[in-house]
């Protein structure tokens, strides 16, 4: 029995020593308690920019690259000995990074769900050939004699603000000035509310219906869309070349897809009882503006001190 046990111990020692030897053979460099293995080296090389990889795979490049990795490990080993991983700064930074990673992971989850859902939704909302043909027949004039219009608009989020804007316009204030001061569409507001030129089917139907039916210079009443309440004035209208039926049907497909997705959003908002407090939103915007003004003044004061 003793002989059997002795033999088994010898065999086990042989395998342990063989494993250690294989591990040592796999290690390119030892830096204190840190090791750089062949797998680590290859992984880091593969993560390097493609243009750099050709050089790294040369004899000289490999030597330089391993030297860089050794320096990296030297810093890590020295940092451990200096107990950097026990410092509050290190812990706080690590915790902040962990929280950011959690947020990014949650954002990725939401983004992935939206991507897959929208891909499936698009399939269900694709307009049929019959729907495209019907639209073409009902709107043939828009393609045989198309026009493009340019308008200006003022977008606000409450009826009270819309009434104030209309009152200012009735008192002969310029549309540009009212748009610049009141419109929540800040991109167009900088240009006096200017939008266009655009053809039918490119914007929200409720907005387009009013915009195309206005006379040049005429100002609309309140126009409600999912974006808020608009006040519109027509700037110009221009005739465009006729569009072939084939091209028209491609345009119609896009128009119907847009209409269907907008309808889906509205129906889903109603189904889920969506409510939005625009007064709170406006108060946030006012607070941000005040903070920006304070920061601006603080910056100017600092310049004066210097």
Commentary on this structure:
67% of the residues lie in helices and 13% in strands. With 306 residues, it is of the alpha+beta class. Strands 4-3-6-5 form a 4-stranded antiparallel beta sheet. It is elongated, with a radius of gyration of 34 Å. 12% of the residues are buried.
**Uncertain segments:** 2-23
- Report the sheet with the most strands, covering strand number, pairing sense and barrel closure: 4 strands, antiparallel
What is the tally of beta strands?
Answer: 6
Strand order of the largest sheet: 4-3-6-5
> What's the shape?
elongated
**What is the CATH architecture term of the domain at 131-253?**
Roll
Structural class: alpha+beta
Strand content: 5-15%
Q: Give the N-to-C terminal Cα separation.
A: 91 Å
Order of helices and strands: HEEHHHHHHEHHHEHEEHH
Over the alpha carbons, how many angstroms does the gyration radius reach?
34 Å
Kindly state the mean pLDDT as a whole number?
Answer: 84
Q: What percent of residues adopt helix (DSSP H or I)? A: 55-70%
